[in-house]
Design brief:
It is globular and about 45 Å long. It is mainly alpha-helical. The longest helix has 21 residues. The protein contains seven helices and no strands. α3 runs parallel beside α5, α5 packs antiparallel against α6 and α5 packs parallel to α7.
Length: 153
């Protein structure tokens, strides 16, 4: 298949759509159309990362899809994408940073909460917190800690 989209366009779209998903997630209230857009932009971003990589961006895209579905209360796809994110992070590859595993565990905890499994959510949150000890940058640690703190609310 001839892909007429060059890699710089794939990258720009992946980043822009990923950032759009964060802005939509941050809204206090979304209209049903915005919920639909949220799903579409997360998947579109993941698609574009899948076209060009690196492996870390693909894993993060899976994590974002899981986060979106968890926010919408859709457990099955949240769990699917959380598992995929964890698989990709554990497989490793290009572009991973010291915070990726902690983030993947946080996403897994969030998906378990969406599924109503508080015990497994607590387990993954504990794994994420333990993994934070290996995160060198305090700003990266702070972001994931804040996300974990959201789970308790």
């Amino acid at each position: 298949m001839d892909d007429s989209v060059d890699s710089s366009t794939h990258r720009r779209l992946a980043v822009d759509l990923f950032n759009r998903s964060w802005r939509l997630l941050a809204l206090e209230a979304r209209a049903p159309e915005q919920d639909d857009e949220l799903i579409h932009v997360a998947h579109a971003s993941r698609h574009h990362w899948g076209e060009i990589g690196p492996a870390a961006a693909v894993a993060r895209g899976e994590g974002q899809c899981s986060r979106v579905y968890a926010a919408l209360g859709r457990a099955e796809p949240a769990l699917h994408h959380a598992e995929r994110c964890l698989e990709l992070v554990r497989a490793g590859g290009e572009g991973f940073e010291d915070w990726d595993l902690a983030s993947a565990f946080e996403v897994a905890a969030r998906a378990r909460l969406a599924a109503g499994d508080a015990s497994q959510a607590a387990h993954y949150a504990t794994l994420a917190r333990a993994e934070l000890d290996s995160v060198a940058d305090p700003d990266d640690r702070e972001v994931i800690e804040a996300q974990l703190d959201e789970l308790g609310r």
